[in-house]
TrEMBL record:
Main location: cytoplasm
Keyword annotations from UniProtKB, A to Z: ATP-binding, Cytoplasm, DNA damage, DNA recombination, DNA repair, DNA-binding, Helicase, Hydrolase, Nucleotide-binding
DNA helicase Holliday junction RuvA type domain span: 1-60
Taxonomic source organism: Sphingomonas yantingensis
NCBIfam families assigned to the protein according to its UniProt record, in alphabetical order: ruvA
GO terms under biological process: DNA recombination; DNA repair
The name this protein goes by in its record: Holliday junction branch migration complex subunit RuvA
Presence of keyword Nucleotide-binding: yes
Amino acid sequence: MIAHLKGVLTAAGLDHAVIDVGGVGYLVGASTKTLASLGPIGTTAVLHTQMLVAEDFIRLVGFASPEERDWFGYLTAVQGVGARVALAILSVLSPDELSTAIARGDKAMVGRANGVGPKLAERIVRELKDKGTIAIGPAGPVGPLGGQAQDAVAALLNLGFRPAEASTAVRAAEDALGEAAPFDALVREALKRAAK
């Protein structure tokens, strides 16, 4: 499994890039947002990747961030959403925008992507409503977690919590302990709050 690539960007198209890593050129499919985040041809690029394997092909898909890669996995788990449609959605919406749209049940926002009709948008929103790393409260969406907080969310996910539950608990723990709280204290406090 190839988790990421770091090398020289040697070519880019509408839906792909070629990254030269040690003399080997990797053709990587990507969303337009990811392609736009890459520098000019000849500069060093880093892409987080997922390998798609089928009977008749092996394909690499690249992402600007681990969050975008996670959302690609969530999207392709929905019936009727293949790699092409998932990349179309991620070309229109960033991971934060997609998380907010799904948390709010905003089918129209998800349906802006090419190849996503009203029924598919509704299915995506319904099936993915517990995914993401933001909490929606009376004040609206809250931004993504950073640093130690993201690691704490990952720890809770590994313990079986849903993404929204883990995020909410860690956010509450961070509010109580402060942003400089050490990882282990943050996880302990988040576990207390998640158990309530």
